[in-house]
Amino acid sequence: MTNHWIDIRNSDCILIMGSNAAENHPISMKWVTAAMDKGATLISVDPRFTRTSSKADIYAPLRSGTDIAFLGGMMNYILSNKKFHTEYAANYTNASFIVGSKYDFKDGLFSGFDPKKKAYDKSLWAFERDENGVPKRDLTLKDPRCVFQLMKKHYSRYDPKKVSAITGTSEKDLKKVWETYAKTGAVDKTGTIMYAMGWTQHTVGVQNIRMMAMIQLLLGNMGRPGGGVNALRGESNVQGSTDHCLLFHILPGYLKTPRASNDSLEAYNKKWTPTTNDPLSANWWGNTPKYSVSFLKSMFGEAATKENDFGYSWLPKLDDGVDYSWLTIFDEMYKGNFKGFFAWGQNPACSGANANKTRKALAKLDWMVNVNLFDNETASFWKGPGMKPDEIKTEVIFLPCATSVEKEGSITNSGRWSQWRYQGPKRLRGVKPDGDIMVELFEKIRELYKDGGTFPEPIHNLRWDFVKDGKFDAHAVAKLINGYFEKDATVKGKSFKKGTLVPSFAYLLTDGSTSSGNWLYCNSYTEKGNMAARRGKNDPTGMGLYLEWAWCWPVNRRIIYNRASVDLNGKPWSPNKNILEYKGGKWVGDVPDGGWPPMANKEKTKRPFIMKPDGVASVFGPGRADGPFPEHYEPIECPVEKNLMSGTYTNPVAPVYGTEADVYKTCDPRFPFVCTTYRVTEHWQTGVLTRWQPWLLETQPQLFVEMSLELAKLRGINNGEKCKVSSGRGEVEAVAMVTGRFKPFKIMGQTIHQVGLPWCFGWVHPEDGGDSANLLTPSTGDPNTRIPETKAFMVNVEKSGKRGA
Amino acid sequence: MAGKFFFIDTTRCTACRGCQIACKQYKKHSVSKTKQYGTYQNPQDLDENTFRLVRFSEHPSKVNSMAWYFFAEACRHCLKPACKKKVDQFKKDAIIVNDFGAVLYTDEMKGLEKSSKAIKQACPWSIPNYSKKEKQMVKCNMCFDRVEAGLPTACSKACPNGALNFGDEAAMKKLANERLAAAKKKFGGKGEVLDLEDVRALYLIIDEQSKYRPVA
């Protein structure tokens, strides 16, 4: 979230699209309701009428996978009806930038597409620059090559008729949603978006979110209370795990993972440190070398010296141009290219797309360790449906671990708050916290490397001073994440002794004087104490910032890009939306995005979007794999034979895989229905924690498939009856939930049915609960992130026991 | 102690079922074996392990094409409990009403197994059920032990959205009036607080009662 949970109450219009907040984030509805009590409008856009829709002022259905068409139409509406916040767009976004002459867009393809490589040459999308290398701008937004005009041209194609034919949403409903949301372009109004996996899990996942971010920027809703782009994270600490490098392409604090060609620290820093020639741009990522060196000091301590590049060569490197995402890992495992695998706190046999492929891949391993609370479909894959245990060589080791409430530590929520928790119940005997398991594991590895081995340096030199008596110490780790002065140093006129905790990332250095396991969390555990454990309830602005409650990255800033919440003179765009104001030469309210004076002070100011090299937000995004403007493409599996928007049918750079388990069936009469997966309130992720909980299982005991009355009639299926749902990759048995909450769509003149299933069930428990909906989903995904496309694919539904369609 | 009331604002309920589970958790109830019946509602009705049940009912609607109503059903703790009147015929004061109005089934209810049907039928909402484990009729007891200790009921404590409220009579009636006015404003004059003069569990609804729960 750019904003935070409580801030939803400051909104005038809440769009819940690509998520089902009432179902999956039930507590968030407290703040939605608080906003509605003050007159806010709630809009729910979802293929199915959900628990969220039941509370909405406006509900509009759309076919899964057509969000860009829906939002592209909204953008067209905003631009053609001049609903945007002009001053904001001109000053705080790149709408005024002049795009180079090589940029072009024809028939669904941007310039620079290489059909052989299935990739774009993004250099063709570069901005025009002046003699100083600063992007050229036209603040009147009239230059035909400026971003604003190109965008206007691009989205003028998304007229209501065409959008309706693609999405299946009626023109009346489209208009109602567009008009209502576009009203937040008024200077005194803000609108917010609450989205989740309903937007990310598509071959156009990143562009779904970019499309909304662009709308938010045009309406002047970013950085402002009641605005922002708000990802509702799918697990309570997933924000924390992402911040601390859960994913292959980043190190902690969103530093880039080194690639093989970054063969020295200097080469790494040069490659990944953005530069700017614009004196008004803070270009905060220009500090990358301070953060990378401090990270290395936290990894290797005193062994990291200037002479040895602070141990940079000990970090693992990724091969250039190779992707190491979830889909690719299991593709390689399926091909037999892995020996061992730690499935730590996860259940890939149910959680990942194309679960049959995943389950078969696990059988190709020599060994697998599953660390989990309960038995699950991954740990027991070898005795699962269709498996022959005596033919499976994989040695499986199961390690029981403690739950999150049985240990002390921090959890970072969607609003970026790191909140410290004390230990609740005592752990059962024989159950260990993950940290202790890791400590034991590493100590054993180090012992094995005692007398050498291949490339022993990273093992020998790993910093290990956060282990106390052989146990993981959460406070010591949190302090190292914050960082220490590793020697006496003077920074910004202040002197610090060796061993002092660094007060904030502004004090980190490139010379090895400081460590910080994650620069973004530098300021979270300082000499003032454990900031995440704070429980102060003061709220001087009355806007729900609660600056003394827990701690928020970065540097306790509750709303990021908050200097965009004020005008060029530092006054809030609207007096009823005041979280920050420049008064008497200083900023009052939230922690500002940098302390520079407002934009009117042309000598000393910096633009508000400090993480972007140009200091402005990117309406035009030339860094994305699939184009600088979001464009509608059909999902890899879809029910229509053409893309109404262009001759480019699906995302041309979306990854597909080539094993016999990777089957894609588009417009195949055997799989005529659109399908999506989702969650239920009562179960957690794949259900490993909740299916064993009798009270919860009682409420949601079995896999179900929701379908319209019309589809049920077509297939002769009665409510509550068992039926078979199948895709090109697998099938599941599910109980039919026949409901008026799903309705057939009219798409390009045809009737298209859609169904949906939750993915929280699995064969291990309960006995008659059904299996994972991910047996149906395809191995394809977003070209930027490789998140799988599990929200739009094709299936068949028929009565159980019936053969053929 | 002042009389206690529930106020359930169905317009705010998102059917998270926190109340339903919190009740079971606090009372350490066992579970009923369920299956998927083609609805989110489960168990299908109140039973010996389920003292509060969120009912799910969907209906076609002119607004947004559908309405999905949620109704957190439990004992109403009537001011003049019909179940007590019935049971008094068999065993005087086997059901008591405590000082804050909770209608409580005492251990004296054991041995009245044969009258279970009559007791259930006496209730206008068919709330109580026979428990094989307890060997008597059972239902919500207003968490009287928690309330005596100054705590809210488990269900109201769990509600994140201000739908299920619990407190003193005056506060709950004030809230009910405020929410009724707000509902009428929002839903075009529709809105009603059910059985205002008769029960200690006030429900605010915006459509016919039969669209929320089975009505005899």
What is the overall shape of chain B? Answer: globular
The CATH level-2 architecture of one domain in chain B is identified as: 2-Layer Sandwich
Give the neighbour order of strands across the main sheet of chain B. 8-1-10-9
Shape of chain A: globular
| Biggest interface, chains and residue tallies | A-B, 42 and 37 residues
Structural class of chain A: alpha/beta
Mean pLDDT of chain B: 97
How far do the termini of chain B sit from each other? Answer: 35 Å
Number of strands of chain A: 33
Which CATH class of one domain in chain A?
Alpha Beta
Number of helices of chain B: 6
Q: What is the mean predicted local confidence, pLDDT of chain A?
A: 97
- From N to C, what is the helix and strand string of chain B? EHEEHEEHEEHHEHEE
CATH topology of one domain in chain B: Alpha-Beta Plaits
What are the SSEs and their pairings?
The complex is a heterodimer of chains A (805) and B (216).
Chain A: E1 13-17, H1 21-24, H2 28-37, E2 41-45, E3 58-60, H3 67-80, H4 86-92, E4 105-106, E5 109-110, E6 113-114, E7 119-120, H5 147-155, H6 160-167, H7 171-182, E8 191-195, H8 197-200, H9 205-218, E9 229-231, H10 238-243, E10 250-251, E11 255-256, H11 265-272, H12 288-300, H13 326-334, E12 340-344, H14 348-351, H15 355-362, E13 367-372, E14 395-400, E15 409-412, E16 417-421, H16 434-448, H17 457-461, E17 467-468, E18 471-472, H18 474-482, E19 489-491, E20 494-496, E21 525-526, E22 529-530, E23 551-552, E24 580-583, E25 586-589, E26 673-678, H19 694-699, E27 704-707, H20 709-715, E28 722-726, E29 731-738, E30 745-747, E31 750-752, E32 754-758, E33 793-799
Parallel strand pairs in A: 1-2, 1-8, 2-3, 8-9, 12-13, 13-14, 26-32, 27-29
Antiparallel strand pairs in A: 4-5, 6-7, 10-11, 15-16, 16-23, 17-18, 19-20, 21-22, 24-25, 26-33, 28-29, 28-33, 30-31
Helix pairs in contact in A: 3-6, 3-7, 3-9, 13-15
Chain B: E1 4-9, H1 18-26, E2 53-60, E3 66-73, H2 82-90, E4 95-97, E5 103-105, H3 116-122, E6 129-131, E7 136-138, H4 144-148, H5 154-158, E8 164-168, H6 169-186, E9 192-193, E10 201-205
Parallel strand pairs in B: 1-10
Antiparallel strand pairs in B: 1-8, 2-3, 4-5, 6-7, 9-10
Helix pairs in contact in B: 2-3
